[in-house]
Amino acid sequence: MGMYYKVRDVEPQTLKELVQTTYRDAIKADFGECYTPVQVNIIDGIKTNKCFSFSAPTSTGKSHVFRNLILGSDKDIVIFVPSRALINEYYLTLCENIPDKSVNILTFVDKLNTLKAKRSILILTPERASDLFSRSEEFDIEYFLFDEAQLGEEVSMRGLLFDSVVRRVSKFYPKAKMVFAQPFVANPEAQFAKNFITNDVSLGIPYRQRNVGQLFYSHDKDDNRFYHIGVDTKVMGTKFSLMSDPIELTLMSGGTVLFYVSKSNIAKDKVFQDYKKYIDLCGDIDKDLIKEYQDRLKNYTGAKDDHNKFFYSASLDLLKKGVVVHHGSMPLKMRSIIEDFINAGLCRICFATSTIEQGINMPFDAVYISRFEKSKPLAIKNLIGRAGRSTSQKKLDVGKVIIKSNNVTDFRKILRNDYVIRTTSLIENPVEKLGTDFDDFRESIINGTFVEEFNMPQKQLNLLGHEELQNKISRTISVLVNMDNTLVDIYKLPEAKKNSIFQLLKEIYERHLNRNVTEAENVVLQHALHILFYRMYFKTFSAICKVRYKLLCNFKEIKRLQALGDDCSEVKVNYLPAYADIPNLKLSKFPLVDKSTKSKDVDFDVVVYDTYDYLDKLIGFKLSDIYYAAFKVNFENTHNERALTFAKLIKYGTSNEKEIYMMRYGLSLDDISILEPYILSINTEGIRVSADFYNLPSNIRKPLERFV
């Protein structure tokens, strides 16, 4: 049961127990920590190998090992994680465990706070890695820690990016150690084979030991009954009927339940209808306990919790019952607030999508897998790891896992079979799913022509530097930026001039692709460009969401009817293109909300999530690099400061040097709108704040406190 490694006062009663206790005490004497034998083996693997790859269940205590590895180093360390949500979790945990302000903890690549900082810990996603290689001479990196390294398995651009980062680490930081951690993988050494890391400097080990057990149940929706099931029918038979509902029992006993569902069912509020029975079991939480979290969400998104008003947010309203949602389209700051809410013990039910798989440390007493994806066995195994939490109590820690009855056979197969990752990379073995738009990226990684400064292949950069295109940019820049380097309000320009700007931006994107966009791609691109300008003009996330919500809900018509004293309750929504990943030759046009929807029935959450997808996944991940490169090349050719100004606006959302420095220190445009008046000076050496800064609430000070 692992008692010797989770509690200190277990006295041995047998010879076997005496051996276990002696082993524990020897570990404590050698390492100064009560590590488990698995944790000790992981530490030994890291220290004795240049590259170490391991797999282990989610409750192994890997984070504890990594944290102490980081604390014990006196050099720079880079941690790669698969999502921005996991960046945030690592950042908060490390800030709490490393109060020493001489250690920079950054979620981007930069050399800052140089008067105080002696070393840096960089927490990145593969998408944010480019600057790491263009500035390799600035860092002395001891470890590259690849957490959730199964990301390289994704048949997607992200899977390509992951392997490309591993190879660029080998090229630019040949002396650094690499550590790969992934759950439930039978062949962790595959990370070496597919990235040409030789066996003489590497070691891979799969660990199967678990700290938390699981009980498995099936739910038959036809008779609405639950059954206890075993993994191996030869041991337990097929199933045993239960007299009670394990989800209901969990909630009634004060426990927490995770429902794994689809994002579309969250966006449509369908999950709130399907699981109303369980939501109703959650009584209202004391208003004083949740007020802080509601206020933070309202301030960030501009949402309201009154069902009878515009900007109504169902997720904000359900917070009153301890019911939350968690998915990849939820803005990072919003997710952070929700995770704080969960970690404060206020959550009763969480409706989550695949983001919950990616190592986020949010365990629940029970997990109900409503969305069973048998094609993703590793995701299923990861979800099971969310059931149950490791405690320091003298008991076997156990979680409940509930699946639908029609998934039992596939579920058993997944649990019994090993998961094996590919030994060849998508870089060498492209798949049709990715299409030809990614061929340039693949080829540049293979032949070494990827331009780190602009985060793109040299071939694509050459296309953006084409003389004809650059001449058009030179002619247009004076329309975009005033002589005093302020941005022109394009929405006040004559229609022909405004259209010419959007036509040029479309042409830049098409040059980058080296093909014309389809009609559906163009609809998404044009709307993304509008959001890009909204970001430059309106700055805050809530302001951008409100602009799009008003367009969607046809506020012009509503105001017209209100002015006439007419009823506006039947006004229907306008067409607003939903986010879609481009480039995609097979893309079809589809609206964010069905045209038959009444404006008063639109959930503001839908706009919030869609806006974040545009800003983060399309503009932040793709478009900003393309347009920044095009206008930066124009500046290098012409030395026209207005081209550089627009390039900065594209990259940062502002051209103000003070605000750019604030963003380099990790502040969002929303943070800047609040904190800018309190910053007296800011540069690469450090930040000086006014005395009034320390009177601000702690959650507002938090983004800057580490640097002042």
Task: Give a quick rundown of the structure.
The protein has 708 residues and is of the alpha/beta class. The chain is 45% helix and 13% strand. The protein has an eight-stranded mixed sheet, sandwiched between helices. Strands 3-4-2-5-6-1-7 form a seven-stranded parallel sheet.
Question: What is the element layout, followed by pairings?
Answer:
Elements: H1 3-6, H2 15-31, H3 37-48, E1 51-55, H4 62-71, E2 76-80, H5 84-97, E3 103-106, E4 119-124, H6 130-134, E5 141-146, H7 157-172, E6 177-182, H8 190-193, E7 202-206, E8 213-220, E9 225-229, H9 233-236, E10 239-241, H10 246-252, E11 257-260, H11 263-267, H12 270-274, H13 276-281, H14 287-301, H15 314-318, E12 323-326, H16 332-343, E13 349-352, E14 366-369, H17 377-384, E15 398-404, H18 408-416, H19 439-447, E16 450-451, E17 456-457, H20 458-464, H21 467-480, H22 495-513, H23 519-538, H24 541-552, H25 555-564, H26 604-638, H27 641-652, H28 657-664, H29 669-675, E18 679-683, E19 686-689, H30 698-705
Parallel strand pairs: 1-6, 1-7, 2-4, 2-5, 3-4, 5-6, 8-15, 11-13, 11-14, 12-13, 14-15
Antiparallel strand pairs: 8-9, 9-10, 16-17, 18-19
Q: Tell me which oligomeric state these chains represent.
A: single chain
As a whole number of angstroms, the C-alpha radius of gyration is 27 Å
Mean of all residue-level pLDDT scores:
89
Assign the structural class, choosing from mainly alpha, mainly beta, alpha/beta, alpha+beta, or little secondary structure. alpha/beta
